[in-house]
Write a structure and sequence with these properties.
Largest sheet: 5 strands, parallel
Number of strands: 5
Radius of gyration: 17 Å
Order of helices and strands: HHEHEEHHEHEHH
Number of helices: 8
Distance between the termini: 33 Å
Strand order of the largest sheet: 3-2-1-4-5
Structural class: alpha/beta
Helix content: 40-55%
Length: about 190
């Protein structure tokens, strides 16, 4: 028993100490096989290769997938600066014609456009992925919905109650529509 405590087994999927807490194992992706991952960040306020806290967090998740040996494609509303060392192997797919973060705050139609951009970017390739991992953003549910329809596991990473934060600290064009999109994303996500 002492040997088990000092040298715990690790999950082959994630490197975590236990498969019980590994998100990959919880959605049926046990084992050490290399995954093809679509990482989606539809938040126009996050420059993925920037220096903001959210940017650093996105980079850390991307690095974890790369370190595992997974093949990662990044779909992002805002790329930011240069691709850092250690992430140059990922495929980068900017969401074209993205509205600015300010326009998304004040115009619900632009918000709908962001969701359509995500869907269009992923639609043709979705079946080639083993996992769709999305950093939750206010106006995007299409990645999780598309993954669900195509039977690809989807993980929705939620870092904050975005609708409430937006209402408290900025403007929000259509709170009811924003809540509906959040609900759709949550219902479609596998984890």
């Amino acid at each position: 028993r002492l040997a088990r405590l000092t040298n715990p087994a690790t999950c082959p999927a994630s490197g975590l100490r236990s498969c019980a807490v590994c998100p990959l194992a919880r959605i049926g992706l046990r084992g050490s096989r290399i995954l093809r991952v679509a990482y989606v960040c539809a938040d126009a306020g996050i420059p993925v290769f920037g220096t903001k806290g959210a940017s650093v967090h996105v980079q850390a998740i991307l690095r974890a997938f790369v370190r595992r040996g997974d093949r990662v494609d990044l779909y992002a509303a805002r790329i930011g600066g240069d691709v850092p060392a250690g992430l140059r192997t990922i495929g980068i797919h900017p969401l074209q014609s993205r509205p600015s973060a300010r326009r998304l705050e004040t115009n619900a139609d632009d918000a709908h456009l962001m969701d359509e951009l995500v869907a269009a970017a992923l639609a043709e390739q979705i079946r080639s992925y083993d996992l769709v991992y999305e950093r939750h953003s206010l106006w995007s549910s299409s990645a999780m919905r598309l993954a669900r329809v195509r039977d690809v596991p989807g993980i929705l990473e939620i870092n904050a109650p975005l609708v409430e934060e937006q209402l408290a600290h900025r403007r929000l064009a259509d709170p009811d529509r924003a809540r509906l999109i959040v609900r759709k994303a949550l219902e479609a996500a596998k984890l």
